[in-house]
Amino acid sequence: MERLLVLARHGQSEWNLKKLFTGWRDPDLTELGVEEAHTAGRWLKTQGHHFDVAFTSNLKRAQRTCSLMLEAMGQSDVETIRAEALNERDYGDLSGLNKDDARQRWGDEQVHQWRRSYDVPPPGGESLRDTAARVLPYYIQTILPRVMAGESVLVAAHGNSLRALVMVLDGMTTKTIASLEIATGIPLVYQLKADTTVESKSSLDKDIDHDI
């Protein structure tokens, strides 16, 4: 039984390029983002992966990344489920602001705390803890059962919704998660054990396969 779970952050978006806080706003992919998604799909195909189901958010940058990855794999007919629970964290009042402008307004330390702390939300927005509070129940109730049934599952989502998942999968703490950055368009490939813990992990950029 394979029990394959692949996590992929969407390719570069138009607002990533402009260094804007995005959150639940809905910009599309850039040309580079499209190529990142295609590259991710091609790499997964070379690894011999074939998905039974894909999950993505309600935001088009993740949806399009998911579609482009599957297209590059020749698997466009895979069942794809969209869920608001997998959306990026809501950046509240920061949404649409340039990150450098935000630092000038509130200071480097405050903006860093909003971006990287586990439990300090930006004004009107969500902390990573808040994001995890919706992502993890959805993972446990909806995604994980399909993985444990032996299906190969793709999750194409966002930096922070995936950080919430990786924190649990990799056994990270509320302190160590602060340093984790998930790159755009880089699939993280997990093989799970029968007890739902991680047996092995590999990724496109490192192409490693080691016991956790």
TrEMBL record:
Q: How does it assemble?
A: Homodimer.
Member of which family? Belongs to the phosphoglycerate mutase family. BPG-dependent PGAM subfamily.
* Enzyme type, top EC level: isomerase
Judging by the UniProt lineage, the source's domain of life is Bacteria
Q: What is this protein called?
A: 2,3-bisphosphoglycerate-dependent phosphoglycerate mutase
Instruction: Give the Pfam families listed for this entry.
Output: His_Phos_1
Residues the record annotates as the site (Transition state stabilizer) are: 158
Classification via PANTHER family:
PHOSPHOGLYCERATE MUTASE (PTHR11931)
Recorded E.C. number(s)?
Answer: 5.4.2.11
Q: Name one GO biological process term.
A: gluconeogenesis
Q: What does this protein do?
A: Catalyzes the interconversion of 2-phosphoglycerate and 3-phosphoglycerate.
What reaction does this catalyse?
(2R)-2-phosphoglycerate = (2R)-3-phosphoglycerate
What is the taxonomic lineage of the source species? Bacteria, Pseudomonadati, Pseudomonadota, Alphaproteobacteria, Hyphomicrobiales
**Residue numbers binding substrate:** 9-16, 22-23, 61, 88-91, 99, 115-116, 159-160
Q: Name one GO molecular function term.
A: phosphoglycerate mutase activity
Q: Which UniProt keywords apply?
A: Gluconeogenesis, Glycolysis, Isomerase
Organism (species): Methylobacterium haplocladii
